[in-house]
Structure formats: C-alpha cells, structure tokens
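Q: Got a minute? One more chain.
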Amino acid sequence: MIRANDKLRKKLYIIIFRSDTKAGKSFDVLLLILILLSILSVFLESVGSVREKYYHIIHILEWIFTFLFTFEYLLRIYASHKPLRYIFSFYGIVDLIAFMPTYLSLFFIGTQYLIVVRAFRLLRVFRILKLTRFLYEGNILKSALRASLYKIVMFLSSVITLVTIIGTLMYIIEGEKSGFTSIPMSIYWAIVTITTVGYGDISPQSPLGQILASILMVIGYGIIAVPTGIVSVEMSKATEAAKTKCPNCYAGLHNEKDRFCSNCGHQMKN
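A: Always. Here it is, folded:
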C-alpha cells in the first residue's frame, strides 16, 4: 500500500511539476487554458450588460474553475516532496489566491457586505499570476531586475532627493497664489514634471519659476533613460547566463556544449 502511494505520488509529481513528458506538457496546456478562461469570466462579469444576461452561467463556471483549482492545489501538496515548502512558496501562495476569494465570498451573504464580496470576487483576477509558471523569459527578467535592484534604489533615492529640493524651491518662489499651497503639493508638481506627465493642474507663473520648471523638464528626459539602460545591461547579462541553463527545468548545465540536461534529460541541441 505504501509503495503504491509512493508510485502514485512520484507519477503525479512528474505530471504536475515537470513538463519534459507528454503527460506533463498536456497538464500544463490544460492548466493554461483553465487560467485564461477563468480570467475571461472575471472580465465578462465586470461588464454590466453581460453580467445581467449571463450571470448564472458565469457564476456556475466560476465555481467549476474554483473546484478545479482547489483540486490542483491539493494535488500539488500531495505530490510535492516538501509540501510546506510549496505552500509557502511564491507559486504556492499564488495557487491559493486563485481559488480562495470565491470561498471567502460565502462568509459575506448580507446585503450590507455586498461591496466586500465584490472586492473578494475581483481578487480572482490574480489568477493571472499563475501564468508566470509558463514564462521562461520571465526568469531572465527576474534575474535582471534582481541584479539591478541596488542601482535602481540608488537612482530612485537621487530622484526623490532632487524633486524634494526643487519642489521646496518652487514653493518658495511661487507660493500659494500660483497653486503651490504646500511643500508636498510642490513635490507632487515636481514628480509630475520630471516624469514628463504634465497634468497641467499646477503651473508656475513667475519667470524664475518657469525657468526652474524648464530645467526640471530637460532633466526629466535624461532621467527616463537611466533605469532603462541599467535594466538593459543586466538583461543582456541574464540572457547570456540563461544560455547555460536548461529551458525546461532551469538547471545549470556543466558546459555550453551539453546536448541534454543532466537533471531532466531535455534535449538542448539537435
């Protein structure tokens, strides 16, 4: 009996967590279709005319999706070598979020709680996070952002310092008569200006204020390119590093000439 359970768990693990088999690929494709359909149902439910006409059908479909995602979650826990590690992992939390809002809505039946129920039901859109499981390029982007983190933090700290100083100066120069009623409001204007958004709800009226605004606008164009350059460099490095990893299980290869992955057996080169 124990051996039978071990065999079943091992078989389920290969199907659910690995995609180097026909069954595993079929499972991933089916899961991808279910995720997209469930997200589509959430979008359709938000359209008033569709909701009024097809609410019962959408409601039934939602419970079908909920039961299927619940079953998938329980299967992943059962098949996982370390269930707790999976439960508290990023994907484990995402899988839980995929079906929990529907169950939570059952506890808020009263009319006074309809807004809360609606909020819980809207949380189902987070099922889109489950799509990250299928994005190989997402791992490259994640590596690039992680490598760029400290540089971007320092860059943002410099920008925050700059808009704080310029916002304060603008408050001193323009004052309340031009709409700069406080330093926070002036900093808000500086942020809107330096990001080249330019809502136009506040604008400097004095020549000195306009000169300062012009300088900030020019700085804004230069600042936009900085984080792009940082991430681009790291993306290039991460892409090169990914060439030495298996695209199926992301395990590192012994060398770039390996034809098959030593971890899952996926063919690397023809």
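A: Residues 136-174 form the longest helix (39 residues).
Q: Perfect, thanks.
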